[in-house]
Specification:
29% helix, alpha/beta, Spore Coat Polysaccharide Biosynthesis Protein SpsA, Chain A, six-stranded mixed beta sheet, globular, 228 residues
Length: 228
């Protein structure tokens, strides 16, 4: 079986109720559920939550909420992999035979069915443990700077001061949309950012972290621009 698991706890601090806050006319989580449904990849789309309101919203958009996430996996320190492992173990106990699991974040309004399908195909056609979304940094990370306690500026690596940007190796980062993985990789909590993973490359305009109110406003502007 191919299962989408959408983690969506209720205790978001920086943007309260972020998972179900209205984003361009719909609860944020609705975009992930709809993309999963449109992809046709999944036998089940499950939302893992500790929150009854989130559960009701998720079900209204077509997801299943067959269990409530335990409190020990619902605090600020709970990692994603243990949450996915919990969902897999629940499925196995219920007699299901999951094979591929896609962790799909509830706060990924730019996710599309096409990229979910691409991730599935990449995982199937390789020996990779995971397939997950990445995008490139807009600025060379080798020339990054930091502010010191005296509000001065320092380079992380001064050896790159005179190196041309085009001569530096391109760097990539997690796009934070979804993570296709094999059941054994999730159950053994295999590291995602490793040699056994294959990247699903996204253009930068389809990636936006949403952790602050400024992020939220920018994401809505970008989303509306893409729709136009």
């Amino acid at each position: 079986m191919k299962i989408a698991v959408i983690p969506a706890r209720g205790g978001s601090k920086r943007i309260p109720r972020k998972n179900i806050k209205e984003f361009c006319g719909k609860p944020m989580i609705a975009y992930s559920i709809e993309a999963a449904l449109q992809s046709g990849c999944f036998d089940k789309i499950i939302v893992s939550t500790d929150d009854l309101e989130i559960a009701e919203v998720a079900k209204s958009y077509g997801a299943e909420v067959p269990f409530m996430r335990p409190m020990e996996l619902s605090d600020d320190y709970s990692g994603t992999i243990p949450v996915i492992r919990h969902a897999i173990e629940w499925l196995i106990k219920q007699g299901f035979d999951p094979e591929l699991i896609c962790c799909l974040y509830a706060t990924a309004p730019f996710v599309t069915a096409e990229y979910l399908q691409q991730g599935f195909q990449q995982l199937k056609s390789t020996n990779a443990a995971y397939a997950f979304t990445v995008t490139s940094y807009a600025f060379p990370i080798q020339r990054a700077i930091k502010l010191n306690p005296e509000l001065g500026v320092e380079m992380f690596d001064r050896n790159n001061f005179n190196t041309r940007s085009q001569d530096l190796e391109e760097a990539w980062h997690d796009a934070g949309q979804f993570y296709w993985g094999r059941v054994d990789a999730w159950l053994t909590e295999k590291i995602i950012f490793g040699a056994d993973s294959t990247p699903v490359i996204l253009p930068r305009h389809r990636v936006q972290d949403i952790d602050t109110s400024e992020d939220w406003d920018r994401a809505e502007w970008l989303f509306k621009a893409l729709q136009g």
